[in-house]
Amino acid sequence: MVNLIAQTACFGLLPKTIGTVSLTEVDAGPVTLIAPHKGQQKTVSAALKTAIGLGFPAPNRSVGTSPRVLWCGKEQALLIGAECPDLAEAACVDHSDAWAIVQINGADASAVLARLTPIDLRASEFKRGHTARTLINHMTGGITRLGAQSFEVMVMRSMAGTLVHDLTQAAENIAARAELSG
Amino acid sequence: MRLPCPICGDRDRREFYYQGHAGMLDRPARDADPQAWNNYLHFRENPAGETRDLWHHEAGCGAWIVVTRNTVTHEVSGSVLAEKST
Ligand SMILES: [Zn+2]
User: Fold this and answer.
1) Which range of residues forms the domain containing residue B22?
2) d(Cα A152, Cα A161) in Å, to the nearest integer?
3) Which among B9, B15, B63 has the least Cβ separation from residue A74?
């Protein structure tokens, strides 16, 4: 049997530092999409709580750090960083390696993202642990706030190259303007 | 233009796909008479005032929603999940 070499979605493209921001790929480990059957969200949440100590997140919220459960759509969430427990009342689909996840950190992180997404990223509106399904330039994806100057951006893996390109271009524009205004 | 999603809150119009009048939800019975099906498929109201439209929060949570808006004032006055609209 040939030993295949696993490559992450942004292999060879990241990390990068541009102006005040850094772009780093997140290796998420196992990822599972959990979609509770109709009316079963509470049951699934309780089962998750027993198995991994985290419940099913409210819409637009993320719970935990490692592992974590990230809301990712109507009645859907991603379990990231742990194998999925047996959940009889939910449809569970393996999404490991299906997402390209990039962390953007630094003073201009929200200014860079503001060039790419229509959502309100102000800290008063979009707090730590908040997540949103939204547009990232022309792609649909997700944005999660990890800290004051730290966000995570995710799109489907097939768009990894475009994500890195778009983030890079926005960061370069912000850095260039900062340089001009001295 | 921003639309209120019952799940995500106010979001930019670019995140939504417009389907048409919410009357599409009132599908006639299979054995309804041809006139009812003809009305359902081809006839649309064109109100000057309040109307209800189906939108898909395509780049967001994925929900189908019914948005109430006014064609005269352009005011958007609310939205509900399509599954709860009838
Ligand atoms: Zn939504």
Assistant:
1) 1-28
2) 16
3) B63
Q: Taking CB atoms and an 8 Å limit, are A74 and B12 in contact across chains?
A: no
| A60, A74, A140 member nearest B59 (Cβ) | A140
3-state secondary structure of A39: coil
Tokens standing for residue A77? 């969430």
Mean pLDDT, residues A59-80 taken together: 97
- Average pLDDT value for chain A: 96
Domain boundaries, chain A: 16-28+97-181, 31-94
Per CB-CB distance under 8 Å, the chain A contacts of B61 are: 59, 73-74, 133
Chosen for mutation from B3, B10, B11, B84 (greatest number of chain A CBs closer than 10 Å) is B11
In a domain, B70, yes or no: no
The domain A31-94: what is its CATH number? 3.30.70
Residues of chain A above pLDDT 70, percent: 99
pTM for this prediction: 0.93
The domain total for chain B is 1
Query: Contact A84/A96 with Cβ under 8 angstroms?
Result: no
SS3 A73: strand
Q: Does the domain formed by A16-28+97-181 have CATH 3.40.605.10?
A: no
Query: Which residues, numbered 12 to 51 in chain A, qualify as contacts with chain B under a Cβ-Cβ cut-off of 8 Å?
Result: none
Residue B55 near residue B19, CB atoms below 8 Å:
yes
Residue B15 lies in a domain: yes
Query: pLDDT tens, B17-59?
Result: 999 999 999 999 999 999 999 999 999 988 999 999 999 999 9
pLDDT at B86 over 80: no
Write out chain B residues lying below 8 Å of A60, CB-based: 7-9
Residue for token pair 């001295």: A182
Complex ipTM: 0.90
